[in-house]
């Protein structure tokens, strides 16, 4: 009986280790609008969330003139809960903070479409349209990250 338990535990360990070393290609795409108009050239990051540590940036860039973005990168140890999209916008800013501060917004990711190929897993997230509004705050004000947005 003990030998069966040891064999099962060893098998679980091996399968877990093999799965963690398989790289996963993560693709995220979407479009950002403010009151129905595309948000042009806003800063976006695709990050791997690491608990009790600084997030690891996988990709970063800006939306197109139509508000669209597309990121793709590979990561190890993909769980589905450890990836986030963060964007900085001025859709709501009023008066004093208008020129100095951005709002940081982290949309919820939908369930990803999973495709498995030998030696590599592919995960595809389609955020479709992220609708922000000037009538309500979309995110939290972030005045500390301004220098990092354009560096």
TrEMBL record:
GO cellular component: cell surface; extracellular region
Coiled-coil regions listed: none
Signal peptide region: 1-20
Keyword field: Secreted, Signal
Pfam family, one: TTR-52
Cellular localisation: Secreted
InterPro entries: Transthyretin-like, Transthyretin-like_sf
Family: Belongs to the nematode transthyretin-like family.
UniProt cross-references to PANTHER family, sorted A to Z: TRANSTHYRETIN-LIKE FAMILY PROTEIN, TRANSTHYRETIN-LIKE FAMILY PROTEIN-RELATED
Name the UniProt record assigns to this protein: Transthyretin-like family protein
Species: Strongyloides stercoralis (Threadworm)
Top-level taxonomy: Eukaryota, Metazoa, Ecdysozoa, Nematoda, Chromadorea
